[in-house]
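Hi team,

Below is the intake form for Redox-sensing transcriptional repressor Rex from Streptococcus cuniculi. Please confirm the fields before the structure is written into the shared record.

FORM ID: S-0412
PROTEIN: Redox-sensing transcriptional repressor Rex
ORGANISM: Streptococcus cuniculi
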Amino acid sequence: MKNEKKSAIPRATAKRLSIYYRIFKRFHAGNIEKASSKEIAEAIGIDSATVRRDFSYFGELGRRGFGYDVKKLMDFFADILNDNSITNVMLIGVGNMGRALLHYRFHERNKMKIVMAFEADNHPAVGTIDENVPIYAISDIEEKIKEANAQTAILTVPSSKAQEVANVLVKAGVKGILSFSPVNLSVPKDVVVQYVDLTSELQTLLYFMRKG
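The structure came back. Fields below:
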């Protein structure tokens, strides 16, 4: 199986990689050794042509008529998603959303782990521990990020503070930000930002419900 990743992977394909990985893990847990593009597509809710097109960006992941080797593909996507080693993540903002994420056990589902959290210097949570995660003052982030060996941050701060905090993260050496703040962040080209807009997703859901 060739696993050379080609360049220019479409964003839509990239967003499905973790879904493919989850599906192959589920197949493997169910002792399924081979899966067709149709079976994979049905498990995700897309068409089989999309599955084949997505996989084509990574070379020959399977053979026509033989299906896809579940174990090999599970390992392949684990490697692409860097799920073979622990990824330390920082949480910025411990309000309602932040607390919920602290209590979400990422490490039980994959190898991502929130190792520390940060809040405004005068916030009452600073100096406490929640779910074994210490909460520090944002002014200490440059020092703490070196200790944690972390380059990834989850941002759950008010929109009015998002860019200011993003600037602090970039200066501290963060290279990836998952932002729950519905504002576009201005960051250097070598910093990747992924946005999660729950309000937008809910509005989209309601639109399709009414349309149907």
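SUMMARY LINE: The CA atoms of residues 4 and 181 lie 35 Å apart.

Thanks, M.
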